[in-house]
Amino acid sequence: MQVPAEVRAEAGDAAMLPCTFTHPHRHYDGPLTAIWRSGEPFVGPQVFRCTVARGSELCQTELSLHGRFRLLGNPRHNNLSLRIERLALDDSGRYFCRVEFLGNSHDRYENRHGVWLHVTGAPRIVNISVLPGPAHAFRALCTAEGEPQPTLSWSGPALGNSSAEVPGQGRGYQVTAELPALTRDGRYTCTATNSLGRAEASVYLFRFHGAPGASTLALLLGALGLKVLLLLGVLGARATRQRLDHLVTQDTPPRSQVQESNYENLNHINPPGHQLPRVCCEELLDHQHPVVHHKK
User: Fold this and answer.
1) SS3 of 35, please?
2) Which pLDDT does position 113 carry in this prediction?
3) ∠ CA 178-180-185 to the nearest 5 degrees?
4) Which of 81, 41, 27 is nearest to 59 (CA)?
5) Are 36 and 82 in contact (CB under 8 A)?
6) What DSSP assignment string belongs to 222-285?
7) Which of 7-43 are b and which e, b meaning 16 or more Cβ less than 10 Å from the residue's Cβ?
8) What CA–CA distance (Å, rounded) separates 37 from 49?
9) Residue 61 DSSP one-character state
10) Which of 80, 88, 37, 83 shows the shortest CA–CA distance to 59?
C-alpha cells in the first residue's frame, strides 16, 4: 500500500488522497472491495466503501459520508485514490485505504500509517454575542475558526476605540475571546486574523437608562396614566358639548307665525235682544293681546 505522508488543501476546495497497491494475484478477476477509514487504521469509522463484481471494472458505491467522497482510481488497476469535495476545516485528519479480495484467498490489505489531510482556511467568525454577567453587567463573546488558528482582538468604546488583544480559549482550529465587562454603550468589534486573511464582526449594546429616583415601572405607569386622563378629558368635553347643543335646540322658540282665527260669539250669556257684533281676530303668537277689528 503506497500513500503520500501529507496532502494540503484549502477549505471549500476539493482534495485527492492517492493510494496504490500491489498484490500476489497477478490475474485476479474475482470480486473485491475498496474501503477508506478516518482516524485510526483497522478500527476507524468508514467514510467510503465500494464493491467491484466478478469480471467487472465498475466499483459500485455503497457508502459515501455526506455524499462528498468519490473513488477516482480503478481497483482493477491497483488504484484506490479518493476525492473529497467541499472541504471543511474539520475534515483535517488521517485517512487509511484498504482493499479486500473476496475470492478463495480472502486477502485483506490496509495501510497502517495513512495519509494526513491538512485543510487550511482564512479566518471566519462563527458567533458573536452579548450575554448577561454578574451584578447586572454584560459580557461579550466571540468565536472564530481558521487554520492556522486565528488571533482575536476586541475594539469598542470601553477600550477607548482602539484594538485590544484579548486572550482566547480554543481547541484545534477554533478560538474564543471574551470581554468580561462592558461598561459603555456602543459598538464592539471582534477581529480575527491569521496568515491567510482577516475577518471581523460587530455587536451593539444599548441599555435603558431610567430617570434618577424613579423606577422604570413607575415611569411606564405614569405615562400610561397620563394618556388615559387625556383620553377621558377629550371624551368628557365632547359629551358635554353634545348635551349643550341638544338643550339649546329644545329651548329655542319656533319662528313667529301669524294665524287667522274667526270667532263668533253666540248670544248665550247676554240677555235676549242684545246681540254682540261679529268680530274677526288675528292672533299673533308673539303677542299676548289680539288685535280686534269690528265689523259693522
Assistant:
1) strand
2) 93
3) 105
4) 81
5) yes
6) HHHHHHHHHHHHHHHHHHHHHHHHHHHHHHSPPPP-EEEEEE---SSSSPTT--PPPEEEEEET
7) bebebeeebebbbebeeeeeeeeeebbbbbbbeebee
8) 9
9) E
10) 80
Q: Which amino acid is residue 93, in one-letter code?
A: G
Other residues' Cβ atoms within 10 Å of the Cβ of residue 239: 10
CB count within 10 Å of CB 120 equals 19
pLDDT digits (tens, 9 = 90+) for 103-158: 666 789 999 999 999 999 999 999 999 988 777 788 899 999 999 999 999 988 86
3 state SS of 65? helix
Distance in angstroms (rounded) separating the CA atoms of residues 178 and 118: 29
What does the chain come to in residues?
A: 296
C-alpha cell at 214: 424613579
Q: Grid coordinates representing 32?
A: 473485491
234: how many CB neighbours lie within 10 A of its CB? Answer: 10
Query: CB-based contacts of 114: which residues, under 8 Å, 6+ apart?
Result: 3, 41, 94, 95, 96
Q: Distances from the Cα of 108 to the Cαs of 20, 58, 104, 284, in angstroms? A: 14, 20, 12, 134
Burial tier of 202 (Cβ tally within 10 Å: 0-12, 13-18, 19+):
middle
Phi, psi of 101 (to 5 degrees): -95, 120
Query: pTM value?
Result: 0.64
